[in-house]
Specification:
Length: about 300
C-alpha cells in the first residue's frame, strides 16, 4: 500500500505492524462473533499433544492465520485513520479470497472475529464520546495485531469453523481432534464436562504448549448437515437439579479474593481470601523452575535425570 502511513510504534520491515492490544477480547471459541451470547454456552479447554510433523504443520497454519489477521487489520486501520470508517465488505472479500486456498472456509472465521472486534471498538468509542464508559476504561483503541511487540514474533492461533472439525473421544480424559481441511488427527488430553453443539474452535500456542478451546452450546443438537458437530461430555444440561427455594446467591471469582458471595435475601456477604493460595502457587512455581533448571543442566552435561 504505497503512500500509507503506518501507526505509531509500528515497523514495516517485516511487512506487518505491531499495534496496541485490542480494547475488547472475545472469549476463546465464540461460535458466532456477531450473535448475542447464550447463557447455555460453555468452553472446554483441551491440551493438544501433536507429534513432530503435526507440530510443524500447526505452526505453519497458525502463521498464515496471523498474516491474514494482521494484513486485514492493517488495511482497516488505514481506512479508519483516513476516513473514520471501515469498509467491512470490501476488505473482508479481498482477504478471504487471498487466503482461501490455504485456510479454506476457516479464513471467514478470522474475518468474522476481526469484524466483531471493530464493531466493539466503534460501539465503545460511541459510548466514550457520550461519557457513558466507566472511568477506569479510558479511551478505546482499535483492534491490535497478532504479534508480540517485544519479541517480534507472530502470535500463533488457529480458528476452525464448527463444521470443519470434530472430536474422537477414547475415554473421559483423552481422544483425537480431527481437522478436516488439513488432514490432521491430533491427540488431546482433557476432561469434557459438557455435551452439546460445538462452535468455532480456537487453537492457541501458550507457554510452549498447544491448547484447543472448544465452545459448546449445552444441550443443543447439531445441524443435520453436520452430524459430527456434537461434543459428548458428562452433563447434557447445566442446571443439574431444580432449586429448592427462591433465594439466589451471586458469586464473583477472583485472584486476591477467591470468592465474593452476596445473597438477595440478606445483607450478609461472604469474602474468601485467596492470598494464601496465591502465595503457595508462586512458591511452588519458583521451586519447579529451580528443579527444571537443575534437570536441564544435568542433561546438557551428560547426566541421566
Amino acid at each position: 500500500m504505497p503512500g500509507l502511513v503506518p501507526p505509531k510504534g509500528g515497523s514495516v520491515s517485516s511487512g506487518e505492524l505491531v499495534g496496541r492490544l485490542p480494547t475488547v477480547f472475545t472469549n476463546p471459541g465464540t461460535p458466532s462473533f456477531r450473535k448475542k451470547r447464550d447463557g447455555n454456552r460453555r468452553t472446554v479447554r483441551l491440551r493438544l499433544l501433536p507429534n513432530g510433523a503435526q507440530e510443524r504443520r500447526l505452526r505453519r497454519i497458525a502463521d498464515v492465520v496471523a498474516k491474514l489477521w494482521n494484513g486485514l487489520n492493517y488495511a482497516r486501520l488505514v481506512q479508519f485513520r483516513e476516513t473514520g470508517r471501515v469498509d467491512f465488505e470490501g476488505t473482508g472479500y479481498e482477504f478471504y479470497h487471498r487466503y482461501r486456498d490455504r485456510l479454506g472456509v476457516n479464513a471467514g472465521q478470522v474475518i468474522n472475529l476481526n469484524n466483531w472486534m471493530w464493531d466493539s471498538f466503534f460501539e465503545l468509542s460511541r459510548l466514550y464520546r457520550q461519557g457513558r464508559l466507566p472511568g477506569f476504561m479510558g479511551k478505546p483503541s482499535p483492534p491490535g495485531f497478532w504479534k508480540d511487540k517485544l519479541l517480534g514474533k507472530r502470535e500463533l492461533r488457529i480458528l476452525v469453523r464448527n463444521d470443519r472439525y470434530y472430536l474422537e473421544p477414547i475415554n473421559n480424559g483423552e481422544g483425537y481432534l480431527v481437522l478436516k481441511d488439513w488432514g490432521l488427527r491430533i491427540r488431546y488430553a482433557g476432561r469434557i464436562k459438557w455435551s452439546g453443539k460445538q462452535g468455532t474452535l480456537i487453537i492457541k500456542f501458550e507457554d510452549n504448549r498447544w491448547f484447543a478451546y472448544v465452545p459448546i452450546t449445552v444441550g443443543e443438537k447439531p445441524a443435520r448437515s453436520n452430524p459430527k458437530g456434537y461434543v459428548r461430555g458428562i452433563h447434557e444440561k447445566i442446571q443439574i437439579e431444580k432449586p429448592k427455594g427462591n433465594n439466589k446467591a451471586f458469586i464473583d471469582i477472583g485472584l486476591n479474593n477467591l470468592f465474593a458471595v452476596v445473597f438477595n435475601h440478606t445483607d450478609t456477604a461472604m469474602l474468601i481470601k485467596g492470598s494464601t493460595v496465591k502465595a503457595e502457587y508462586y512458591w511452588w512455581k519458583r521451586e519447579i523452575k529451580t528443579y527444571q533448571a537443575i534437570r536441564d543442566w544435568l542433561r546438557n552435561h551428560g547426566f541421566e535425570s
